[in-house]
Amino acid sequence: MLVPPMPGQKLGKCCLPLLENAFQVKVVAVDENLNVFYEDSVHFDRDLPEFGTQGGVHIHKDGLTVTSPVLMWVQALDIILEKMKALGFDFSQILALSGAGQQHGSIYWKAGASRALTSLSPALPLHQQLEACFSISDSPVWMDSSTTAQCRQLEAAMGGAQALSCLTGSRAYERFTGNQIAKIFQQNPEAYSLTERISLVSSFAASLFLGSYSPIDYSDGSGMNLLQIRDKVWSQACLGACAPQLAEKLGPPMPSPSVAGTISSYYVQRYGFHPGCKVVAFTGDNPASLAGMRLEEGDIVVSLGTSDTLFLWLQEPMPSLEGHIFCNPVDPQHYMALLCFKNGSLMRERIRDESASCSWSEFSKALQATEMGNGGNLGFYFDVMEITPEIVGRHRFNAENCEVSAFPRDVEIRALIEGQFMAKRIHAEGLGYRVTVFPLSVSLCLFSFIGHYSDGVRTYPTPA
């Protein structure tokens, strides 16, 4: 956490971005010159142990269903705002707030929840007032891969996977929200019938600040298999293939750069926000990354996180059976391309624990002690069902191209890193990208950065 402003300290006007991902809620305050002067987070497993999550989620017995408690997210927001208030943060100086949420996750508001949102009492925290407002208490999230049957049904209804991709930007994916909604309708029709509104994680968070339902933005809505990415409207055929009355439950989408409204009076009275504070549309974490990196056409970015992603800016979409095309969060007339790899930081952490004594420092030393190319040894590591490609398990091959059951510790670590980055390049080039090879010194800096950052220390070592 950065040093917060002291009570009474004059800040000038500022903005408040928020981030909700699989394992934490994070808040960052920036001044009018975009300088960060406050930063804090609530870690779900550590700070809210009563919900019993691991990595912020519940992995069900089938190994495919993955959910997160909705009230955990709400209570995390309560905690982080109360901490800021206790430190004397001057909320009245915030001109606008926005945020990013993990993509694809869905929240199901029970009939009557809108009345609760509009009549919040400033005397009580949010989680106490909203605990009865959800028809589904545990929300499906992006790690869920239990909707294969619903994916096949949607593709069949739309004339095949490629036809669906051309319309919505992606073939049917298990984590995509439309297929999650279809599963809930089929397996829990009573809960679906009691639902008056369905939000994405991003629009859910915006709704909490607005005190009313926020529309889903175009960019995050592109990750649902429901939005026609060229026309920016819900596909009636896709909606009908997933569940009845779905258009009414989703509400119309809106452009990502839109102002959704002004902040709820609840926050004005409880925390001292200015009543004119604007709530700008929240979006998904991947579109927000593109916006925050200020990408231009031709740029390519690899983001290393719980899931690893590769994305770039496009003027003309070319949907295929691999990867995704989303509406651009900065310019609604353009698009972004995305490849997602589910086995990201959690996979790296497991290999760190197994082969480097739980130490990122030892992990980095082992990586730098082995030569590029790893002596011909290659590994692919998928502890959970991968997205690109659809595969699970650990697969190791020696220099003779024979599959082996294990590698020495140092070889294992380099096999993991090289295998992950080779896969990213291969799949990117399959979509027509042309990747420039970085110098060895830069790649070593990146690998060392992975270790130090994941260990909680923000250091940037000088390349060797």
Summarize, please.
Helix content is 36%, strand content 21%. It has helices at residues 44-47, 70-86, 113-118, 126-130, 148-157, 161-168, 177-187, 189-193, 201-210, 218-221, 236-242, 246-250, 265-271, 285-292, 345-355, 360-369, 409-430, 440-454; strands spanning 14-20, 24-31, 36-43, 58-59, 66-69, 94-101, 106-110, 138-140, 195-200, 227-228, 233-234, 259-262, 278-280, 283-284, 300-303, 308-314, 324-327, 335-341, 378-382, 393-397, 403-404. Helix 16 packs across helix 17.
Q: Level of helix content?
A: 25-40%
Task: Name the overall outline.
Answer: globular
Low-confidence stretches: 1-11, 438-464
SS strand fraction: 15-25%
Largest sheet geometry? 7 strands, mixed
Radius of gyration: 22 Å
Tell me, rounded to a whole number, the average pLDDT.
Answer: 88
Number of strands: 21
Note the total helix count: 18
First CA to last CA: what distance?
30 Å
- Overall SS class: alpha+beta
